[in-house]
C-alpha cells in the first residue's frame, strides 16, 4: 500500500498538529535534516569563486555576442530603419529584426502585448527593435550606435494619474466589495482621506540578465538562462522558433539573485539569442550591461493609492473605500495578478469592515513593470499602514494602539454582529477567514522584547530636548497570503534517484537564486530517508528532468518543491519497505529508516518483550533493494489543496495560509537636511516550523533591508520624455553595509507550526518579511510628526529620500504655524 | 626602446602581456584572457564591488621599517575600472587563488582563507554573486590587520569601512558583518607554504630591468594605434606628454575608466601615472600641506584626519574603500566634476595647485582653475603636480557637509564647505573671515561670494546665519537632476548654513546622523546639555 502524501487527514487540524508534535520531538536527527541551520549548499563554491553562473561558462570559439538597439522614444511609430552601417561594422556577423522571427512575435507571458522585437509601434524608451550579433560584446554595442531609425513621435502617457483619468488601462479594473462602505463612511464618527505615490523599485540582482544558447543537431536549442521560470523560457523559445517544446532544453544551476526580476524578464534575452543562433547556426550569448538591464527590463510597479476611511473614537475602522492603481507600464505582463495582490493586501493585518477595494491597471509608455518580491503586496500593505498612522494622529493616539485594535481576530465587546454576538472580525474583504491567529500574540511579544513603550517615552524626551535631530519609532506588522493567486500555478514536480552506492540524486522544478531552496529541499529528502545531508546531490534545474514547472516565485519554492520531493521519496520508500518486509520477514510497520540505517524490528517473542533489532547501513540496504529489483527512482508531484477564488464575485480563498511578522524600527531624522538613519530594528517573524533557521533568518534580514531600500534610498527617476535617469548604481542607490541598523535583533516565532499541512509545517519566507521594511518608513513619519506634537500626519510619498522627508518636515512646520496662528486668533 | 610589455604578478606568477589593448580593464582581462571567472561583473562602473581584487605594491625600502621591508602590501580595488597598464610591476590576487589547494591524494579539501571560512560559517552568502568581491574586501582587511600586527578583531567602524564598496542584495549584510568580526578565529592560510609565493612573490628582476626606462608600450592585436605607458619619473612623463599631447592621463582611472565601460568609448593612448614616486608624496610644512597629485585617498586619510578632521570625515562617505585605494585628489581636481566633493572643500580651504609640463611649472589658485563644466586651465602637455592646502590657524574652523540619498558611496546632491575665522569665545563668536565652496549648486565647484560677504562680521547664531543664508539665491541657481531638484538643493544649502551656526556654538553636540556611532545611540544626555546651553 502506498500513500501519496503521508499526512493525517484529521477533521480537526489543531488535533492533527498535536499528534504530529507528539511523535516528532526528542528524536536524534542525522546531520542536516530539517530544522537544522545547514549552510547554503553552494557556500564554499561562492567564497572560492567556483560557483558557475551563466556568464562564467566556457565560451565556444565561434560564440556570438548580442547587443540590442532600442527605441529612442517612449511612444513613436517607426518610419524607416537603416541598419547598413551596423551590418558593415567589422566584427558584426548578423543583425536581426522582427522579420527574422520564424514563429510567434509576441512573447507576453499571460496576455499578449510584448513583441520580442518591435515592428512599428514603440511603447517605451529602450524597447528592442533590432539585435546585433558580433564577435565580441564591445563590437556589438559599438555597432548598435550606428543604426539610423526615423520615427513619427507620438505623445506619450507617462503619468499614472493621467492614465487613471483617461482610463488608459492594460487590463480591466477589478473590485472587492463587502457590506456598504459608502453608508458606513457617512455614518462614521470620524472620517479621513489620504493618498500616496509609492515609487517602483529596480531589482538590482547583482548578476544581470544573461543567457547562452546552443543550437542542437535536432533543430532545437539548448538554453542556459538565468531565469526563475525555465519552463516559460522553454515554451517561448519554441514558439518564436516555431518548433515543438520537446526540442528546447533550458537549464539553470543558479542565479545571482532574482527577486522576481527573472520570472518573465529573462525570456526576451533567450528568445533573441535563440533567433540569432537559429539563423547563424552558432552558439550565442546575450548578457545585458547593467545600464541596458535597468532600462530594458521591468521593475516593481509604482502605485498611486487613495483611501477614505471612517472609524470610531477608538480608531476602529467601520468602513473604507480604497483605491490601488498600479502603473503597469506598456503591457499587461503579470500586472493583473500583481494589482490583485495589492488589493488582497490593502487590509494588511486589519479588519476593514465595510469595504470597497478597487484595483486599476494603468498603462503608461514606460517599461512594462513586473514581478518583484511581494508581487504588489507591499504596495497594498503600505496603504493600510498609512491609514493606521493617519488615524492615530487624527485621534492623538499612539499608532501601535490603533494597529492593535484593528487586528484580525481582535474582538471588541461593543462591536456585535446582526445576531447580537461579539463580532469575530476574522474574515477578509475577499471572504477568506484568517484561521490561525498569530499576530496579536506575536506583536505582544515583540512589544516587550523591543521595549516599545519605554523607548517611546525616551524618544519623546529626546525629541523635546534635541533642536533638529528627531527620533521616530514604529511597529508595523505583516500578514501575507501564501499561494499563487493563479490557481494552476500551485503545482510542482520532483525527481529522486537513489544509486547503488546509497547516494541520492535530487532534482526539482524550483530554481536556486540564493534563497537556499536547494539545501532546504535536500534537507527534506535527508529527513525522509533519515540520511546525512551530504548523501544528497542536487543538480541544476532542467526542463528535461522535471517538465511543466511553475516559476520559482510567490515564496512558494519550498512549499511546492519540498512537497513534490517528499512525494517522490515516499513512493520510493513504499517500494523499499515492501521489499524489506519480504526480505527480512518483518511487518512493514516495524521497519523504518534511522540515522543512515534501515532498522528492522524482527517479530519478537512478545511475552519476553525482547525484540531483535537489525540495523542495516543505508547503502547496503539500497544495494539489496537493487538486487531485489526494486525501483529506486521516482518522480513526485504536489498541488496545493483548498485554494479557490471567484473573480466574478471577488470572493474565495486565494491563499492556503498566511505568514506573519512584525518589526519595530527606530530612526533618527535630521529635520534641517531631511537625512535619515536607521538606528535599531527588532523583528519577530513567523515561518511556522523552520526547515532551516539560518536560511530563514537570512531571508528575513535580506528582505527587510531590501524593503527599507525601496522606501528610503532607492529612487527611480524618469525625465519628461520617459527616459530612465537612474540607470545605474551611481544614480540608483540600494542599501550599502553602512545602512544596516546598529542593533538588529531578528528572531523566529517559536512553537508555531503551520496550521496547514505544509512541508513539515513550515511556512514560506521569501516575500513576507520584505514588508517589515515599512516600519522604517513609518518611523520616519513618526519622527516628523514629533514636530507637530504627534497630532498631524504629513503626507510622505516613497521613497523617503532626504528631499521627500524635508518636504514633509516643511509641510508639518507650516501646519504648526497655521495652527498657532489660529490659536492666537490670527487670520491665516 | 624597451620591449613592448607590461609585467605583473598574477596569483603568484609573473606575467608578460604584449597583446592587450590600452583600455583593457583588469576585470575583462581576467575573465576573457585568463579565463578566471571567479571575479564577477556586477555593474562595470565601480559601484558594486563584485569585481574586487587585491592589488599589491611592494613597500619601498626607504619607507619601510625593518620587518616590512620589501613586503608586498595589498589593497582591494575594483577590477572593472582599473586598466591593465596600471598593474605594471605590481602583484594581483584574485579570489581564485585565495584558498590553499588541498591535496587530492590525501583527500584534503581546500584550506579556505579566514575571510572565506568565516563567510561560509556565518551564512554570509546567499546568491553568491557579490561574494567573491566581499571575500576580497574582507581578506584585505584581515591581511592589513595582520601586517599591522593587530590581533584584535576589526571594530565595527573598520568593518563597515572595508565593505563600503561591496553591495549585497540578498543578505542585508548582518551575517557578513558577523563573519568579519570572527575572521580572526581562523587559521590564516596566507602564511602557509604554497600561499606565501602568492602573497609575497619574489621580485622578477627581468621585469624591473625592462621597466627601468619607464616606457611601456603595448600594441594591440585589433588596433595598432593602441598604446599605453607607465612612466616611473616626472621627466619621462613630460617627454611622453610632449610627444603625445592627446594621450589620456590616469592616476587611479576611477572616473575615466567609466568612459570605456559605460560609454563604450576607446582610449587609444593611455599614460598611467600611478607609479611616479615624486607625485605620491605628502609634505607637511609650517604654513601648508602639500599633497602630490598621485596620492590616493587612502594614503592621505591620516593626514587629513589630523589636520582637517571634517575633511577626513568626508572621505568615509567619499566613494568606496576600493575607489579610495585607487582614486586620487589630483584626479578629482583635474576632472573638474561639478560635484567633485573634494574641490569644494579645497576651495573653502583656499588651496592652490601646481601645473607642470616640459616647459616648466606654474602655480594658480584653485578658484581660477575651473572655467566651465568640465573645462579647466590645464593645457595640453600639462599635468597636475601638487595641491597645496594652507593649514588651519587656531581661530579657524573647517565645516564640511555632504548631502546624498545614501550615506556611503553616493554622489552628493549638495556638498558645502566653509572655513571660518572666528573671534571671541564659544557662544559669542564673530566671523572675521569666511571662505566657502559648494558642489552640486552650479556647473563647476564654486564659492558663494555673496554669502561670504554677508556672513562677514556676523555674530554666530542660528538666527543670524539663517538670515544670511537668504543671499545664497544670488550666488546659485542650481539645476534639477536625478539626484535632487533645484528647490531642494537651495533649501538644504541654506539650512546647512543654519546648522553650521549651531555647530560652531555647540562644538560638542552630536549633530550629524552619519557620525552617529554605536556608542552614541543614547543621545539624550548630550543633547539635553546642548539644549540647556542653547
TrEMBL record, chain A:
PANTHER family linked: ALDEHYDE OXIDASE 1-RELATED (PTHR11908:SF132), XANTHINE DEHYDROGENASE (PTHR11908)
GO molecular function: 2 iron, 2 sulfur cluster binding; iron ion binding; molybdenum ion binding; oxidoreductase activity
Record keywords: 2Fe-2S, Iron, Iron-sulfur, Metal-binding, Molybdenum, Oxidoreductase
UniProt KW Ion transport keyword: no
UniProt xrefs under Gene3D superfamilies: Aldehyde oxidase/xanthine dehydrogenase, a/b hammerhead, Aldehyde oxidase/xanthine dehydrogenase, molybdopterin binding domain
Entry similarity comment: Belongs to the xanthine dehydrogenase family.
Compositionally biased region (Basic and acidic residues): 1-23
Organism, scientific name: Oleispira antarctica RB-8
Cross-referenced InterPro entries: Ald_Oxase/Xan_DH_a/b, Ald_Oxase/Xan_DH_a/b_sf, Ald_Oxase/xanthine_DH-like, AldOxase/xan_DH_MoCoBD1, AldOxase/xan_DH_MoCoBD2, AldOxase/xan_DH_Mopterin-bd_sf, Xanthine_DH_Mopterin-bd_su
Name used for this protein in its record: Putative xanthine dehydrogenase, XdhB subunit
Cofactor(s) listed: FAD; [2Fe-2S] cluster; Mo-molybdopterin; Mo-molybdopterin cytosine dinucleotide
One Pfam family hit: MoCoBD_2
Domain Aldehyde oxidase/xanthine dehydrogenase a/b hammerhead intervals: 48-155
Region (Disordered): 1-46
UniProtKB/TrEMBL annotation, chain B:
Molecular function GO labels: 2 iron, 2 sulfur cluster binding; FAD binding; iron ion binding; xanthine dehydrogenase activity
Superkingdom field: Bacteria
FAD-binding PCMH-type domain mapped to chain residues: 215-394
CDD domains reported for this sequence: fer2 (cd00207)
Keywords: FAD, Flavoprotein, Iron, Metal-binding, Oxidoreductase
Record-given protein name: Xanthine dehydrogenase, XdhA subunit
Gene: xdhA
